[in-house]
Amino acid sequence: MTASAAAAAAAGWAWALRARLRPVVLPVAGIAGFLLLWQLAAVTVLADSYAVPPPTAIVARAVADVPFVWPHLIQTGWEASLGWFFGNLVAVGGAVLFLLIRPLEALFFRLFVALYCLPLVAIAPILIAVLPEGWAQVVVSAQGVFFTTLIAILLGFRSADAASLDVVRAAGGGAVWQLALVRMKAALPSVFSGLRIAAPACVLGAVIGEYLGARAGLGIAMVYSSQSLDITRTWGLALYTALLAGLFYAATALAERLLVPWMRHGALVSLPVGGARGSWPRRLVLGTGSFVLSVAVILALWQAVVSGSGLSAYFMKGPADVFRYLVTDADAPAHLQRLLSGLGVTLFDTLLGFVAGTLVALALAVLMTVSPTVRSLVTPLTVSMRAVPLVALTPLFVLIFGRGVAVVLFIAGLVALFPTLVIVSGALARTPSSGLDLVRVGGGSRWKEVRLVMIPASVPAIFSAARTAAPTAMLGALLAEWLATGTGLGSDMLRAAADAQFAFVWAAVAAVTAAAFLLYGVATVAESAVQRHLGH
Q1: pTM for the whole thing?
Q2: DSSP letter string, 476-526
Q3: Which CATH number fits domain 325-536: 3.60.21.10, 3.40.50.300, 1.10.443.10, 1.10.3720.10?
């Protein structure tokens, strides 16, 4: 071998090695840089704040706490695994039934939306009282999983190639054969986008459930450490929670890479809009009818849960009780005024968090698309932040951000950021290559590809993301009000529960669910209008 050939071979080997190490080195380097900045801040400008210990102290305490943490980690991991399994099982079953029996979707999809929008921080104590020990945490975990997976599966089913479906249909295959032979495979890319959102959500749901009542788990361990002002241990437990969520996310990403390696280009991520087709009078009549039936189903289910819980009517309130409290009782006008006043504050906080989270997510999605380096740095950090148990760490965030708008922006924005980032960055990455090739042929830069092709093609996905992010931002706003600002329905529900005003608590739960449901509907209408305008 000549010297030039040997040099070329060595250069090729070095390039291949760098290509293999880059996905590992960059995230590690990014996290290391972030931790270094944190360490410097903790020992300088934040030295007098006991709320933010340096990373070295957190890691040292986490290592020393391994014997203490291990059983709690196992408990939370088990609850999150069950929540992930049952949540996704409900999602798969619901999606298949909705596809095969279309009237069921018109009737029950809104029920799934309502369940997703329920403020579980308010009703988790009821779940704990009704369900066997440990299962309330599983239900809360599953609640954070099933809806994102459901809409992802429905999208995947409906993105199946029409020609392939025609082939199955021509061969005599019905809806079941089309599902088995074509739609299942077509759904995989979209499904994994949903599963990547659900991965940290199942862990966070389990921790929130533990925080609101449990004997073991990372959530209850953080409660005890926070109450004893052991801040370093609290941060160490949060680190274990983030690592557990990262494990779920990494397993999902690995499965995605192995099962759908073709996923780099293809259909854009866009949540299914559904609804009736045809002239606008027909759509109006059918839409109104299905809405009324859906509301009736939701109210009937609510009453069935209240009647079947076996708990005292003093504690459990049904639709009729809430109606009397807000409409027919002597003090109903005052009750309604109190409810609407708190709801107005919560809606404003929700809007702040939604806008902040969406803008940051869009900026990060573009940067991640332009620079693989930024993608490698941002992904592990966002997954970790999404897994942070906000319920347990909110007192620390109050010390950092105060009790005003800043803490609302941080908490509500953080929970709204992650689903938007995953959906939009996925849509940008799967922009059809034909449009990109036109820009490349003309000598356009990566920024030009993003500006001229990727962002316009991803507009439907941005509106789709809003359908998930808007009700999620409301839950974040309630959490910020509950534990930080002392305003809005989040705080009002806490005070009402402490004063045994359970009628107000249930009225507030109904109002928050209806408001989140309305936000979802507004985002759906906006998405539908955009898709019709773009000819989708």
Answers
A1: 0.74
A2: HHHHHIIIII--HHHHHHHHHHHTT-HHHHHHHHHHHHHHHHHHHHHHHHH
A3: 1.10.3720.10
